[in-house]
């Protein structure tokens, strides 16, 4: 991946940050697209000070015009797009308000559409490229209280399949990654707000739901993204790759 141009949405924290670090450490120039100006610039500055090539681009993936403007400003090939930006929601059909549904659709679904649409023409003209979409085990599993989130990630998975089919002759590969529970700052924040004083207990309970007995790390998801972007995965397109500790296939 040396000297490749990589675009990572939602790259300022969690899985996105691990992906940014992974590609940058391999010699890629990484464009970190995130709506959080403070965190995004801080991360980019820190990694640049480490000698890595990371550029921050303030981007709201739900805003098609802004996405197009940002991506058009990037010079050279667009080798890899990682559609990682996403938001979560806890609730069933009855407790999910219209505003909740609209918010998840705007970021998780429209965001993937906006970014993919903005790069596809350049990828075709340059002779190929790679798109990696962050789905979730919730896209194919019935997980309690994840009505809107599951809907949005199911859409991401199906966009992956149709993009792969439509552009396979253009040498553009498109795959999805479906993580299960990954230990990110989001998890810690959720536990501290929802279960104050019982964070460790609930964390251990959640970790135990994974057949391997622990949550995954952001770096383990980043490893899969790196592999799917590389030439070693040149024969892989139109598929969903589980990074789930056996959650989907081995869960009792």
UniProtKB/TrEMBL annotation:
Presence of keyword Oxidoreductase: yes
PROSITE patterns the record matches: ADH_SHORT (PS00061)
Gene3D superfamilies in the record: NAD(P)-binding Rossmann-like Domain
Keyword Oxidoreductase included in the entry's annotation: yes
Pfam families per the UniProt record, alphabetical: adh_short_C2 (PF13561)
Alphabetical UniProt keywords: Oxidoreductase
Family: Belongs to the short-chain dehydrogenases/reductases (SDR) family.
Protein name: SDR family oxidoreductase
UniProt source species: Cyclobacterium plantarum
